[in-house]
Amino acid sequence: MSALENIMLRVSKMEARIGVVGLGYVGLPLLLHFSNAGFKTLGFDTDKKKIDQIKSGESYISHILAAEIQAAARAGMQVTHELSASAECDALILCLPTPLTDGMKPDLSYILDTVDSLLPHLRHGQLISLESTTYPGTTEEELLPRISKTGLKIGEEIFLVYSPEREDPANTDFKFSEIPKLVAGQTLECLEAGMYLYQSVVETVVPLSSPRVAELTKLLENVQRSVNIGLMNEMKLVADRMNIDIFDVVEAASTKPFGFSTFYPGPGLGGHCIPIDPYYLTYKANLLGIDTRFIELSGEINRGMPAYVVNKLSLALAERDKELSNSKVLVMGLSYKKNIGDPRESPAMAILDLLTQGGAEVSYTDPFFPTFPLMKNYSYSMSSVNLTETAIRSFDSVLLVTDHDCFDYPFIQLHAQLIVDTRGRYRELSDQIIRA
């Protein structure tokens, strides 16, 4: 029996053990999906604290319930920080961070260091799938040569796949199994193995001609969103100067049944994907001598939104004969999007810094963060403010950055002196409520 036939048979009989390397916002949900489907699963992460929390039945991701982890553990899910255990797995799915360097260049160190650590433990018959968002050529130029050093023949003895994640935290409209899964293999045999694996947990699997196509497809999805949000943010600047509510404009345009896609402006971009992924594409394009002006311009606009928000707040305070440097400001929401506890690249962080630099006395409220989260570039010794009547009245302004559904918006409006709304949550604007 060939290696391909063997892994397909083990998957079909639910005997295959699935390993997920990197148990963050993508990896942990994926591990649970395979466990729920009935597979034996093994999760890997170098963060021992995460491993200990999972073993204790705890969740460190807000939209994943502890009960889900406990149920998976009862079904046999295991976790470890020892990569040597990867030899036990029939499939290894890599869900690793792809951040930027300080110079805004791709940082593949998490992927490459992990693959290098896995090499001594790779064996005949395994499938290796990379799900991290990265620039076109990563699978072929970086992973392929490394795995080939083991002496295992790609497509015959070991299978290399790229299948980009399409995780959208807290999205209740689409289940994981309902989101079409893109799969590309280094060879036709790799593609067949990858298709067979993912078809066991996803309703629709879309085969692509090469890993490069899949890598660029993922970037296109995120770049398109970044560019469209950049357009909406620029339109917000124009509408503001014309004293027009941009949210009224977007809702009106959204009534057109063709030719218009609805995107909303905001205080900036957040999350690990949208603010970062475009730079993976511009990096590769620049190496080829292509200037991605359109993509870079949208990034510039989006990065400038926190400063615009703070300026609007400062002007609103000035109209009330108050200076930012002598004002108390409450920032509502630290997450990059509503209803999740994920602060990565959140515009709230840049806004907090700008407010602090402006001399304001800053506090925040966010039920997902009882205390200020540990961040690489931001450090504040603060705890979330409980939104009582007295607390709200004590602030010169409430700045709505992330519009969690759990906030009591009428109650806040009743007691706030000034509300600066960046999300269009308050539709009736007034002297008390202004748009930013």
Provide a descriptive summary of the structure in words:
The chain is an alpha/beta fold and 436 residues long. It folds into 2 domains: 3-209, Rossmann fold (3-Layer(aba) Sandwich); 246-435, NAD(P)-binding Rossmann-like Domain (Rossmann fold). The chain is 39% helix and 12% strand. It is built from 15 helices and 13 strands. The protein has helices at 3-12, 27-36, 48-55, 66-74, 109-118, 138-148, 188-199, 211-241, 246-253, 277-287, 293-303, 305-318, 347-357, 389-393, 409-415, and strands at residues 17-21, 40-44, 78-80, 91-94, 127-130, 159-162, 181-185, 205-207, 328-332, 361-365, 397-400, 419-421, 433-435. The strands form 2 sheets. Strands 3-2-1-4-5-6-7-8 form an 8-stranded mixed sheet, sandwiched between helices. Strand 11, helix 15 (409-415) and strand 12 (419-421) form a beta-alpha-beta unit. The chain is elongated.
